[in-house]
Amino acid sequence: MNLQQLRKIMVFYGRFTPSYTQIGYRARSLLWRNPKADFSGQHWVVTGASGGLGRFIALEAARLGATVTAVARSQAKLDQVVADGRAQGHQRIDTALCDFSLQTDTQRLVRDLAARGRPIDVLVNNVGLLNHAHVITAEGREHSYTTNLLSHYVLTEGLIRAGAFRKERPLVINMTSGGGYNVALSTRALNTLDPKKFNGTLAYGWHKRAQMVLNQHWRDTYGPKGFTFYVMHPGWADTDGVKTSLPRFREVLKSVLRDARSGTDTALWLAAVRPPQREEESVWFDRKQRAAHVYPHTRTSKDTPQTLVAYLDADVARVADAG
Ligand SMILES: NC(=O)c1ccc[n+]([C@@H]2O[C@H](COP(=O)([O-])OP(=O)(O)OC[C@H]3O[C@@H](n4cnc5c(N)ncnc54)[C@H](OP(=O)(O)O)[C@@H]3O)[C@@H](O)[C@H]2O)c1
After folding, report:
1. 138-196: per-residue pLDDT in tens?
2. Reduced to 3 states, what is the DSSP secondary structure of residue 246?
3. Ligand 1 atom with least separation from CA of 99
4. Which of 22, 24, 90, 155 sits at 20 to 30 Å (Cα–Cα) from 110?
5. What are the pocket residues of ligand 1 if the criterion is a CB atom closer than 6 Å to any ligand atom?
6. Is residue 81 part of a domain?
7. Residue 160 belongs to some domain of the structure
8. How many domains, in total, are found in the chain?
9. CA of 40 relative to ligand 1 center, distance in Å
10. What is the value of pTM for the model shown?
11. Does a structural domain hold residue 33?
12. End-to-end CA distance of the chain, in Å?
């Protein structure tokens, strides 16, 4: 490592560690008044709900009265979430299988959820991962691009078009990451097929940046139809995902990383309070609407929300829906 790299790392940790870890959460939460959350009568769909933050959101939403459809790719892990819910006294967790790295499986999930006929009040697009390995799916796409971004687009648009949301106060919460702060929107960088050009950390940042932009597009498009969209990031939480993808980062920071409760606090708070939001693109973090950019270089891009959506639509059209 050269001096310049070392300096960059020190600046990065110096800037974000106090805020993104449990330290920031503890300090900010001293000033919060906790709302009385009641999700009774609501149906939540939570993706990536078999572990980490998604699992906690599913269990907590059920504890607060919601009926939850927990979605992931392992039935055994989902059964464990149901069993954990039962052990805590909540009977209302249902499951659905989906591999979000595959468009056709996500489209199958849309049909499955619509056919179940239980209107959705809250969709939490939580599934996501940082993949260092360069994996191409059976549909010919880079695996993390599909999981982190394309599947969110296919699922959300599909459920809206299928009329699967409840008419009154439908809500979508998108789980992004501070990794998105590092890069500008770039459609060219989303789906890296050449292994020589692939960098998992950068790819994750591009997906998460695009997710922030997509959220704003959805606000503009579906806000007038009664939908609320929030995009939030959890800070740095100790989950299996972090253990696998960022072992050295975890090793250094594990004593101060957030737990699942503090990492998901903003998601659950947003659903309980439904705060109004300023018009401009932004990201919620620790119960506050914050700027979508922390560095000037990410503000300028050849891409726009329109080119992003056109890119995703064209990509979806390439793969035939099996249904
Ligand atoms: N933890 C953090 O510090 C942090 C920070 C910033 C942002 N985030 C974001 O928060 C979200 C959750 O992160 P996490 O740390 O809780 O992750 P995690 O511990 O890896 O959990 C991810 C969940 O998604 C499931 N999943 C992964 N790939 C899937 C696929 N292709 N299809 C269906 N399910 C799949 C996993 O189940 P399997 O057992 O099947 O893998 C697991 O249930 C992600 O979007 C992440 O980017 C997390």
Report:
1. 999 999 999 999 999 999 999 999 999 999 999 999 999 999 999 999 999 999 999 99
2. coil
3. 32
4. 90
5. 48, 50-54, 72-74, 77, 98-101, 126-129, 147, 175, 177, 233-234, 236-237, 239-242, 263
6. yes
7. yes
8. 1
9. 26
10. 0.97
11. no
12. 51
